[in-house]
């Protein structure tokens, strides 16, 4: 069970501790935040409700630890990250178990998430050594009117304290995708995990603790958003915010002030299917993209824009595949598991009922038990339905029939979101033209949207985010350029 063996020190009674100053601590608030198991809908774990005073202490120690960490040789930073990665992979089973209980992630996917996270940390250590080990040398006479009297050296230096806020759906992977770049670049890190997923994140942080990072360099504070959320994001001690999640990100960006932001927010990822597409391939990807982890992924297929001439055939193929999906608890690796909270399930139901009232075709019966919603394909969805624009974050997929490629592109671009999109066609020229026309951060050709591999650039346009992720992009984003200029005496042409 989580909390046993190596992880025994991170729990007190039945409440998990928070991590600060290199130690596991209880909050002076004496309060805890319950974590509800989405499957049983009962409290499964409890975490500390940290106070603002405790946040202040964490920020202080993060600032102090960062100063000496920035002077630590790059190879030493990399060595510690490799060590953390190995420990993380070693402890994949208990961490995966937390993911199953906290966010109803199917068991096999939970294990994969932890392994992928270890790989990300290791890759980041290697990439960081390469990126940060290189500077730039400029000479002044390359600009008109100048002699060679100045040599300019640039290097990358850390920003300081990075605040990392990952989302519930990948609480380990999307935490390390912020932690590893921050650390290799010489920053310290304050992690505020999502409530659902906090215990998995605490276990992950313990792996970094076991690797032997300096005290105060890594902190993990848990608590109520209402108590410490704004307090953290507006804290004067924060030098960079890396956030993945939903609407909250827009509120954070308005309050954060002059702090570099890396944000990956929602998506309404469109899938455009042309007449010449391989329909079996399209159907397989739409089902995988739309329904894996119950559609609770920012890169899930959220709307299928299908040419009318192939729509009937494609919808039948999709429905045949949906019929084979297993629905149930995450422990037995069901394809579709309960969505994360009751309020999420209620929101999804609201979108479904709106579509029903407005005449969408239900390809399956709408079935819900608690937080568990059976996969549902809605055909003949029109633009006046909420599901055409809003992100359900659940196993419900709208199909909009289109009569031209332009119509599909127009629908895609009319969205406030612009994270990823995909297009299915056998014509590479058409695919490239459509890709150019789609206002999204990434376009996948003949595959469903996906964030990985984790070293690929990953970014959204419009309300889908600020900045770009992917390992190299994150390292660069968490540093700034420092310039030193050597002024030489005026040239004397007698030399040489």
Automatic annotation (TrEMBL):
Q: Quote the catalytic activity from the record.
A: D-glyceraldehyde 3-phosphate + NADP(+) + H2O = (2R)-3-phosphoglycerate + NADPH + 2 H(+)
Instruction: Name a GO molecular-function annotation.
Output: glyceraldehyde-3-phosphate dehydrogenase (NADP+) (non-phosphorylating) activity
Record-linked Gene3D superfamilies: Aldehyde Dehydrogenase, Chain A, domain 1, Aldehyde Dehydrogenase, Chain A, domain 2
UniProt KW keywords: Cytoplasm, NADP, Oxidoreductase
Provide the Gene Ontology terms for cellular component. cytoplasm
Q: Which CDD domains match?
A: ALDH_F11_NP-GAPDH
Supply the EC number(s): 1.2.1.9
Q: What class of enzyme is it?
A: oxidoreductase
| Catalytic residues (positions) | 264
Main localization of the protein described in the UniProt heading:
cytoplasm
Aldehyde dehydrogenase domain ranges (all copies): 24-483
Per UniProt, subcellular location reads as: Cytoplasm
Q: Which family does it belong to?
A: Belongs to the aldehyde dehydrogenase family.
State the protein's name. Answer: NADP-dependent glyceraldehyde-3-phosphate dehydrogenase
